[in-house]
Amino acid sequence: MVVKSKKTMGLIAIVIASALIIPCSRAGYSQNRINDDTSLPTQKASRAKAISDTKLHLESLLREHGGWEKVRTRVGLLRESVLEGREPDQGGKSAFSFFSFKNYEFNLTFTRVSLLDRWQGKTKFQNYQKEHRDAVGVIVAVDRELKKRGISLLLVPIPSKIEAYASLFDPKIPETFPVSPARLSFILELLEQDVEVLDILPDLLQLKTTGDEIPVYQRERHHVSGLGMRRAGDLVAQRLARYSIPGCDPGRFSDKKRMSKERGRNSTPMWVWEVLYDQEPYTHVSDSPIVTIGDSQSHAYRTASLASHIARATGLKVTDLSQAAGGSFAHHRFIKKGMGPNMTRAVVIWIFSSAYAELGKWQNSKWPE
Length: 369
Fold this sequence. Notes:
By secondary structure, the chain is α/β, with parallel strands linked by helices.
């Protein structure tokens, strides 16, 4: 396919993203009716297909690039370049920074961890990780506890910036090359355990190659950009389309493009899409059937955050319980603040920077009876 112009293709990307907004039910709310797979076989089938499709895509990607051995060999060479800790030669004011945001050690570690063969919970950073348990095991345990309570879990591990921009370090590397074997094996293990995982990387790469000049990651930080957040919100909404969650009203939501001026977060100005509700800046609620938990990948940019765009795309305000660097212990926060006798939850969306599967402090929680 021939790309006619950057401006045209950029517009097409935005229109496609907007078209993903889903209709929603206005029927009476029943938690069991929404989440009980035995009473709604179509939900079970839809979920199973989503898991199967993700697994088939990742396995196909590995075959396309020669299998695990060849992938790991090439990533090893890329990792050597990253270990040097030198920014790729890009030039210009809009160049990406992989290492220089505030803490050099953190950014070098974060990028290097993304290129590991597997995550085993052995990487320590500034004594943060005093005790580490298997991330997959903890996530599977949370998934099972939520299922007991009629609540569905959707995991959204955000890929690292180098997965979208590896070609800055190696110009010959294919656009779709899986530069994070650890993240792939992490997702595949979860899928084998019947945990639903949304991989947003293919869509970020699609956005990146449409010719739009807006990047899909922040230039200085590790967060997905405003454009990437907007697309990710639409992708989550597609997954939630299987649930008949009441009270949705997409007509009251909209968004507008603005330049981000958040001091201390991104020194290079960046476009974000601020979510509006009745033409006013959107705010979360505490009692939504949709709950987002995790780290700053969920709440960065505030009213233009991923959590806000999930609300826009589903047409329903959400409860956001995310906190900075909180991806690996988000389930503790949900148990403490997201559960209660007057709280009826349908879906928990767990969003975190995927590198924290290695860097985070993963521990099981005691769930209330």
